[in-house]
Amino acid sequence: MSEVNHQSIRLRSPAKLNLFLHIVGRRADDYHLLQSVFQLIDWCDTIHLKLIPENEVRRINPITGVQADQDLVVRAAKLLKDFAKIDSGVEINLQKEIPMGAGLGGGSSDAATTLIGLNHLWNLNLDQKTLCDIGLKLGADVPFFIFGQNAFVEGIGEQMREISLGDREFLVIFPNQGIATKSIFQDPELTRDHGQITIDGFLASPWSDLSNDCQAVAMRICPEVKQALDWISQAVPGSEPRMSGSGSSVFTVLDPKADIAKLENLLQNLPKGWIGRVVRGLNKNPAYNLISSD
What we know:
By secondary structure, this protein is an alpha+beta fold. It is built from nine helices and eleven strands. It has a single domain (1-294), classed as Ribosomal Protein S5, domain 2. The protein has helices at 72-84, 106-121, 128-136, 142-147, 181-185, 199-204, 215-221, 223-235, 260-267, and strands at residues 3-4, 8-26, 32-52, 57-60, 89-95, 151-154, 159-162, 169-174, 242-243, 250-253, 275-280. Strand 1 (3-4) and strand 2 form a beta hairpin. Helix 1 packs parallel to helix 2.
């Protein structure tokens, strides 16, 4: 849900899962070519944007360890402010729920939500493509959250096609250890020649025989990834847990008949520092209707 008036807006900013991640090649500039499906989930941050007369971007409720000028929501607001030549300002209150460094796209989602919200508050009427072009300057995943729908993703992440994934729940575990994406993609043992699949091939069997080419490297770099995968395997016998993106969060798709109450009780006894949730897939970003696709 969102709260909107002429001077302020409060929006939910969702995380995402990579249902699979295949590295299918490498460009001459060393960017990796991938195939993936991005699934929005209802694990959300909340962003409150309030217009102010002062010509500044003001962050309140600071996040420990993140300087204001490095915060993606501040950078997003300044980027859009400069692009549109806005001479007033905005106050940003970001309430974090998505763990940082989890590989769930929280920072990219927050940046996208900031762009969408300010596009609305400042009456800029920029379309989806223009906002995506601006968002890409902040990170490769930002355009996906502006696109705002579950997507079959190719190229270096810029080629997105809407995909219908139905209504499913997931068990997600973050073992409280971040992994530098750069360390994964620079590893000489990373698989880079995965055979390509088609969107129709995925839809024919969307919840089976999927893999993450980054997972083996991540488990070597970060043993907690394997520990989290093993935890899910024990908690949900017969499941096929995998890592999301370049990690370190791991997840499994839950059977519609899964005992959610039992799982939530198990989550109370996670290893110290770990974070786990049962989440539901979303079909669209909660802010989707605030932006024109034309």
